[in-house]
Amino acid sequence: MVAKTLLLRQWTSCLDEEDWFPPLEKVLEDITLEQAIWKPAEGATNSIWEIVCHLLFYKKRFLARILGDKANEPQAENNDATFQLPTVTWQNWEETKQEYLYFHRELEKILAKPEYEALYREIPEDQSLVIELKSLVMHDAYHIGQIVFLSKMQGVWPEKRSF
């Protein structure tokens, strides 16, 4: 139960409670479409929106695994395919952000249930869901750092944060 409490706390800090890094909901709050698709001229860097699509893919996959819903588990040819954008419009950018917030919060609701002990059941990769949750938290933190860095590169990161 201690591991679950710790992981849920970390899960929350990835979305809406600042801890050692800013929460993604606040980071994305004022990102425009132009900023979301921007990439530096040099290097193989994904855009903010591509990173959010990648994070969303893994949230959807994790939810399907928790629910044992193999039929709705998203599939990708490879990891690079998880960064693909829908048609680039402001509405699609907003929908991607809202979908990400929805899946993150739905997972949190399920995981927070006191009776939810299925976190320790094995999944296809021969690891427990609790181990996958730990990996997802670290994965989110890593990519939130990338998004913050891309914001700073564009000069849109606030000098003084309110979060």
Give the CA-based shape.
globular
Q: CATH superfamily assignment? A: dinb family like domain
Order of helices and strands: HHHHHEEH
The total count of strands amounts to 2
What is the CATH C level class, in words? Answer: Mainly Alpha
Pfam families: DinB_2
Domain DinB-like: 24-147
Protein name: DinB family protein
What is the fold's blueprint, element by element?
Elements: H1 2-15, H2 24-28, H3 33-37, H4 48-67, H5 90-112, E1 122-123, E2 127-128, H6 129-153
Antiparallel strand pairs: 1-2
Concise synopsis of the structure shown:
Residues 24-147 form the DinB-like domain. With 163 residues, the protein is mostly helical. It has a single domain (2-153), classed as Up-down Bundle (Four Helix Bundle (Hemerythrin (Met), subunit A)).
Structure description:
It holds the Pfam family DinB_2. Residues 24-147 form the DinB-like domain. This is DinB family protein. It comes from Lysinibacillus irui. The protein is an all-alpha fold and 163 residues long. It is built from 6 helices and 2 strands, in the order H-H-H-H-H-E-E-H. The protein has helices spanning 2-15, 24-28, 33-37, 48-67, 90-112, 129-153, and strands at 122-123, 127-128. The chain has a two-stranded antiparallel ribbon. The mean pLDDT is 85.
Task: Provide the descriptors you would attach to this structure in a database record.
single chain; 163 residues; mainly alpha; Four Helix Bundle (Hemerythrin (Met), subunit A); 6 helices
